[in-house]
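ok trying again, last paste got cut off:
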Amino acid sequence: TTLLNALSGLVPDGERIITIEDSAELQLQQSHVIRLEARPPNIEGRGAISIRDLVRNSLRMRPDRIIVGEVRGGETLDMLQAMSTGHDGSLATVHANSAEDALMRLQTLASMSEVKVPFEALRDQINSAVDVLVQLTRHPDGTRRITEISVLASHGRERFLLATVCRFQAQPVAADGRVYGQFTYHPLPRRVAERLYLAGQPIPQAFGVAVTEAHLTTREAE
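nice, full thing came through this time. structure:
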């Protein structure tokens, strides 16, 4: 939630944002925010409103961006379709141990929908919808840090190919019980650099741009 709040602070004020959560925790500061919250069933087992219901209905509200607190079921498929049909810059969280595991879990969660979609087609959806994965890790000293930023470099029904552009290299726990380390940076894929250029955003000097795909630190996820 804290990371989503921090990332949402970079969203321009004029955009229409819809947040979808189990319990409203996000605190967006923009002026045009619609907050949707899931509702459990009443004592008679009726009246429930699920995250999936909210994702489907949010598409009728002309959003520029959709922010989902967490995807954990069939709503993942609806979220992927929303991201790949004109809602660039949407955000969602998913619990996983690594960026590769996050892609696998997205594929599994999307398959939990009542719409039976082959795994190959789900891979196509994920490759089309997801641009960047940001991994947040809780360290032994209790601190939470961004430990990896990866760009999804695969296309269509190719096997997932992740290009790591930033990684936190943690050191062993120090004598004071704290975890220290440093960030290492890798060149950005050219298509990412081009999108930043077209958006009028400068490329940070720490990254640079990969001359060819061979210059990327990539790894495949089955």
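cool. The mean pLDDT is 86. The CA atoms of residues 23 and 152 lie 30 Å apart.
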